[in-house]
Amino acid sequence: MSLNHFLADQLQSKEQLLALINLAINIKTNPENYSNALAGKSIALIFEKPSLRTHISFDIGINKLGGHSLYLGQQNGQLGERERVKDVAKNLACWCDAIVARVFKQTVLDEMAEHAGIPVINALSDLYHPCQALADFVSLTETFGSLEGLNLAYIGDANNVSNSLMLMGSILGVNVTVITPQGFGPDGNMVVKAQALAEESGATLTITNDVEAIEGQQAIYTDTWVSMGDSKKVEQILADFAPYQVDDALMKKAGAQAVMHCQPAHLGEEITEQVFDSGASIVYAQAENRMWAQNAVLVTLFG
Ligand code: NVA
């Protein structure tokens, strides 16, 4: 299998995604077999926004593959301000073998990929978080054995994480339900894309404001109500979002075995501390699998 970049969920086929998931599990099981996979490779990690899991899992993951990573924070301001995005990409390509970037705008990543001539990996944008989704489907595979026909509900604010889950899930044959307060649902174009992918895989995609749709779900997923770069204020949306909080009652209603969160979690807002720390929580498996999933992407890009 070959990949040129890892920019957005819908750019990979079902076969490619399944191969990445299997490879992630293989690298996790036999890390010593991959300890030279990135020997001699240098990878730039650009972060326009804060990060704990993404930064550290890429840095340490690249190290485990025998490669070298270089962290570039916000000291140069937003990409495209000091010099053209195209020039940042072309300069980095003089020294680096790949670029990992967390950006405000997906268009910046697409522009880098167009001009860099080296692989570009999306480490979160306004639209997608494909590394997170890949790690999440690795975690769901470990928990449930198979993804085909699995019922996964995302509840809360529609954002980059829910977009990636519904797109990647629809490709993989997962029945995805996205439950949001009115006015906070996914973008129409994104839903059209995911719907077409679900039809192709035979999965269902449900977009609703009805909390009752949580019934019969096997895994529940939530994320912050206010994403990085989002202008809404949590105090203003608390009343709208309160019925969508993942608490014990919601978990009971769902009958779900697993609860998921990409973190950072805002305990007492989108999820209660009790549920976050409960036996159903697989949040730390998700965090660990970020590294193995990303390493599968890197090994494949350089394969
Ligand atoms: N939706 C969140 C994800 C953080 C990992 C954000 O964009 O801030």
What's the layout of helices and strands?
Blueprint: H1 14-29, E1 42-47, H2 53-64, E2 68-72, H3 85-95, E3 98-102, H4 106-116, E4 120-122, H5 130-144, E5 151-155, H6 160-172, E6 175-179, H7 188-201, E7 205-208, E8 219-222, H8 234-241, H9 248-254, E9 258-261, H10 273-276, H11 283-302
Parallel strand pairs: 1-2, 1-3, 3-4, 5-6, 5-8, 6-7, 8-9
Helix pairs in contact: 1-5, 1-11, 2-11, 3-4, 5-6, 5-11, 6-7
Describe this protein's structure:
By secondary structure, this protein is an alpha/beta fold. The protein has 11 helices and 9 strands. It has helices at residues 14-29, 53-64, 85-95, 106-116, 130-144, 160-172, 188-201, 234-241, 248-254, 273-276, 283-302, and strands spanning 42-47, 68-72, 98-102, 120-122, 151-155, 175-179, 205-208, 219-222, 258-261. The strands form 2 sheets. Strands 7-6-5-8-9 form a 5-stranded parallel beta sheet, covered by helices on one side. α7 links the parallel β6 and β7. α3 packs across α4 (106-116). The mean pLDDT is 97. Norvaline (NVA) binds at residues 124, 159-161, 223-224, 227-228, 262.
